[in-house]
Design brief:
The structure holds 3 protein chains of 3 kinds. By secondary structure, chain A is mainly α. Helices cover 78% and strands 0% of the residues of chain A. Chain A is elongated. Chain B is an all-alpha fold. In chain B, helix 1 runs antiparallel to helix 2 (28-48) and helix 2 (28-48) packs antiparallel against helix 3. By secondary structure, chain C is mainly alpha-helical. Chain C has 25 helices and 4 strands. In chain C, strand 1 (64-74) and strand 2 form a beta hairpin. Chain C is globular. In chain C, 51% of the residues are buried. Classes of the chains: A mainly alpha, B mainly alpha, C mainly alpha. At the A-B interface, helix 1, helix 2 and helix 3 of A face helix 1, helix 2, helix 3, helix 4 and helix 6 of B.
Chain lengths: 100, 171, 643
């Protein structure tokens, strides 16, 4: 039997890897994928709790998270495409006009 | 070591490994492939947790649809390899790495020292909960309203995505 | 009838509003004049009926307080808009409305053809309203409202002909001077009121005066209160050192000078001191100050009036001098005598001013008496009434001025000191002299003006009838105050006695029956006055050379007197200029611009500086924001973890 903690540790680890990816990488698409990774880690955590506590709410929440993630991915990628059309780059460092 | 534990450790290590590899790749296509691997592992982990429906949905939606979308975009934009990460080490990067590492440590700290009664057993009706039938029942009774709202959300996302990605027609 | 006292002040207020709002559209001067005068006349009738009723009441029952409405109710501080109707206030009301009506009627003739005719009557009515508020108030604050109101109206009326310019400045300057000098006095009044409130916890006359009755004589707080109140009185009633505005105020139309600067507004200070008699009685030092300032002013102003050549200026200094006599009376404890002189002075001084107005009118705005003369025949009524006024002010029996002035001098001698009497008597002699100098130069002798171009004619009836009425009052008005020594019942003093009861109980006045000393002094003072008259007539009628020789022989003294002891210049250099310069350099440039503006600018600059620093957070790179997120998460988890 795997204790709950093990799943949670894995989830935390994946989350932090995702954070690292968001913060360190300059390619906008890689950043986006890291965000998806973060979302998935949270999903894992939710399913784990749902299973150990016997509450279906966790699984329902995961269901909706996935839906939202899908929608967000669609819109986000559309934005990246539009950005690429204007600036010919997906390097985040170069997308900095909205500054002081 | 029981079969369960072997499966779990295998899948967990693979998931962690693919996550780390994902952020270290230079070629974005490689990153996407590693992420797909990660999703498959997660699907497997969901199965160990008796969430059958969600596991299937994970593979179908995430690995099957979303990642395909990602790959489409990457190919569309025709991105080459990223330049070496090391050239851009600046304050931002150090800060970022520092904070992320601190976050990991903090979270580990919780699990090592502060977590008290760790549930060992999965609950009794976990297997029953993960079935499509059960999920459907709960979804269409207790969570009917969010379900309907989600459909609106998807509609909005579709419209938004289409408009954003449209080429500006010369007028 | 007492409950109708509110009507007394409502009539002039209505007059002001009506004439003020609609006057410019009413083309007929007669209508405006009638409306303006009848409001005051109605007030007089109401006051007279209250007076008649008062006489029928028991002496203890004569004082009533009629409350109109509650004005301020703030915790322990409560002020009502209420009127105290007692002997003193009804007397003042009768004087104000009575003389006021006559002057309003006179103004119909005097201001004829003036572009601002309606404005004049509106202001006059407003003035009467404020003055009546002052006189009828039952508390210091309401009195102060009236006090300020008459100051305002004085400004408006002095500066009435605002397009006119004199060689020394504009009428606006004179009006401003009056207002500002008054303000200085008002400051003292205010401080006195604050002190009264902190000491007695109320500003109601009744409350304060009954509380004061249990104090002892010589209390230092009360001394300060009364000194401050007296400062206010010197401002309003033109005593040393705040008298300088009154001569300049002659720039206004003559009815204004008659009403405000002879009969009513300047008497506000006297009234206030008389009303607060118990407070003054409790402070012997202040009483001495009042008496000394009064008698000095009386003498001082008389000396200046000796040599002035403008007919109105002579009368202005005469007013200042007579006010000094009133204060002399108040200062030695003869409160009723001071009020008596106030009343008689109102009669003959208004008469003299209105008469001078008729002369000025006839001479086509000429005011220099050196250019007059021989008007006796062309202006008979004016001459006769003016002469009566002059005799009255000189203190010749049996006219009213004799009774009132003599009573003051007698009380000054017996309750004050002989020195006060000597100075006062000297002043009285000078008064007689300069008045008859004025009469002789203006009316008698040969005319010194160009008879071909100037044809003086008698004033219209609206102007002469008030003159006649005032002349009658000047002759017979003194009979209500005939002292016991001359066989009279001293009715005036007895009438006012209940008002000053509290004050009398605090003073230790030597009980004096009419002694032979009183007769002696009476005769002496009449003799002095008569000497002054004869001397004046002799010099200015027959042997003008004496006057010219004296003035060249004492040319230095003459110049000083002619230039009013250069006090205006002294004030200008010692007080006005430093204040203006100091305000300009220090208060304005130094403090206002430097400190206050600097503070605000500094705040703005500091904000600008801080934002320059902080704006760098907005790098535009999304990842920096993400880093901040992570830092925040770290912090929150840390707090939750380690709490």
């Amino acid at each position: 039997m795997i204790p709950l903690d093990y799943y949670l540790v894995l989830s935390a680890f994946m989350f932090c890897v995702g954070v690292l990816g968001v913060v360190v990488r300059r390619n906008a698409i890689i950043v986006f994928m890291s965000i998806e990774l973060m979302l998935n880690s949270v999903n894992l955590s939710l399913i784990a709790f749902s299973s150990f506590l016997g509450d279906p709410t966790g699984q329902m929440l995961v269901f909706f998270v996935m839906t939202v993630a899908a929608a967000e991915a669609a819109v986000g990628l559309a934005i990246i495409i539009a950005l690429f059309r204007n600036k010919q780059t997906v390097n985040i460092d170069e997308i900095n006009i909205l500054k002081w | 070591m029981s079969f369960e534990q072997v499966v779990f450790y295998f899948l967990a290590v693979l998931a962690a490994f693919s996550a780390v590899m994902m952020i270290l790749q230079r070629n974005p296509v490689n990153s996407a492939l590693y992420l797909i691997l990660n999703f498959f592992c997660l699907g497997g982990l969901y199965l160990t947790l008796n969430a059958q429906f969600i596991a299937m949905v994970q593979v179908l939606v995430y690995a099957g649809a979303i990642m395909v979308l990602f790959l489409f975009v990457i190919m569309l934009l025709n991105l080459g390899d990223d330049r070496r990460l090391r050239e851009h080490l600046g304050l931002r990067m150090y800060l970022g790495i520092g904070f992320s590492v601190a976050l990991v440590l903090e979270l580990l700290f919780i699990f090592l020292f502060r977590s008290s009664n760790s549930a060992v057993q999965q609950s009794a009706n976990a297997a029953e909960m993960g079935t499509v039938e059960y999920v459907g029942k709960v979804l269409f009774t207790r969570f009917l309203f969010p379900f309907e709202v989600t459909s609106l959300l998807l509609l909005a996302a579709i419209v938004g995505a289409v408009i954003l990605a449209k080429k500006k027609t010369a007028e | 009838m007492y409950s109708y006292v509110g009507l007394i002040i409502l009539f002039p207020l209505f007059g002001f509003l009506f004439v003020g709002l609609f006057g410019s559209r009413i083309k007929s001067e007669k209508t405006i004049g009638i409306i303006g005068s009848s409001t005051i006349a109605l007030s007089f009738l109401v006051a007279a009926s209250i007076f008649v009723e008062m006489l029928s009441l028991q002496v203890d029952d004569r004082q009533h307080i009629v409350k109109q409405f509650e004005w301020i109710a703030a915790g322990s501080f409560s002020i009502n808009a209420a009127f105290q109707v007692d002997q003193l206030s009804i007397l003042m009301t009768l004087i104000v409305t009575g003389v006021g009506t006559l002057i309003h009627v006179y103004s119909i003739g005097y201001m004829h053809g003036d572009r601002g005719f309606w404005r004049f009557f509106a202001y006059l009515n407003l003035f009467i309203f404020a003055m009546l508020t002052l006189v009828l108030a039952d508390n210091f604050l309401l009195m102060f409202v009236g006090w300020e109101g008459v100051g305002l109206c004085s400004y408006l009326l002095i500066g009435f002909w605002y397009e006119k310019n004199f060689e020394k400045g504009t009428t606006g300057d004179a009006a401003k001077k009056a207002f500002i000098v008054n303000r200085i006095g008002d400051f003292g009044f205010l401080l006195g009121m604050f002190l009264i409130f902190t000491t007695f916890g109320s500003l109601n006359f009744e409350t304060v005066f009954s509380a004061a009755s249990v104090s002892t004589r010589g209390d230092s707080t009360i001394m300060w209160i009364t000194l401050l109140l007296f400062v206010g009185a010197t401002g309003k009633s033109a005593q040393i050192p705040l008298y300088v505005w009154l001569p300049d105020a002659m720039a206004g139309p003559t009815p204004v000078s008659a009403l405000i600067h002879a009969a009513t507004m300047v008497t506000a200070g006297i009234y206030m001191v008389a009303r607060s008699s118990v407070l003054f009685a409790l402070s012997p030092i202040t009483m001495e100050v009042v008496a000394i300032v009064g008698v000095l002013t009386a003498f001082y102003a008389a000396t200046i009036g000796l040599v002035q050549n403008d007919i109105k200026k002579v009368l202005a200094y005469s007013t200042i001098s007579q006010l000094g006599y009133m204060f002399l009376g108040l200062g030695v404890g003869a409160f009723a005598s001071g009020i008596f002189h106030l009343m008689t002075h109102a009669f003959f001084k208004a008469l003299l001013f209105l008469g001078s107005g008729a002369v000025i009118h006839a001479m086509h705005e000429e005011q220099d008496i050196q250019k007059m003369g021989g008007l006796k025949n062309s202006l008979p009524t004016t001459y006769k009434t003016f002469l009566i006024g002059a005799i009255a002010i000189s203190g010749i029996p049996p006219l009213s001025g004799f009774f009132s002035k003599d009573e003051i001098l007698w009380k000054a001698f017996i309750d004050g000191s002989p020195i006060l009497w000597i100075v006062g008597a000297a002043g009285a002699g000078l008064t007689a002299f300069y008045m008859f100098r004025l009469v002789s130069l203006t009316f008698d002798g040969k005319s010194r003006f160009d008879e071909h171009h100037v044809h003086p004619h008698e004033a219209p009836k609206t102007m002469t009838i008030p003159l006649i009425i005032l002349a009658v009052l000047s002759v017979f008005g003194g009979f209500i105050g005939i002292p016991a020594s001359l066989g009279g019942g001293n009715r005036f003093e007895h009438f006012l006695e209940p008002v000053f009861e509290r004050a009398y109980s605090k003073m230790t006045l030597p009980y004096h029956e009419s002694s032979s000393l009183e007769y002696v002094l009476m005769v002496v003072s009449v003799a002095i006055a008569a000497t002054g008259i004869i001397l004046a007539r002799k010099i200015y009628l027959e042997k003008k050379e004496i006057a010219e020789r004296v003035s060249t022989k004492f040319s230095g003294l003459y110049k000083i007197l002619l230039n009013k002891y250069y006090i205006d210049e002294v004030y200008e250099s010692a007080i006005v200029t430093p204040t203006v310069k100091g305000s300009d350099k220090l208060l304005w440039k130094g403090f206002d611009v430097g400190v206050i503006d600097g503070l605000i600018n500094f705040t703005a600059k500091a904000t600008e500086f801080a934002s320059q620093l902080l704006k760098r957070i907005q790098t535009g790179v999304v990842q920096s924001y993400a880093i901040v997120f992570v830092a925040g998460i770290l912090f929150i988890i840390g707090v939750l973890l380690f709490r």
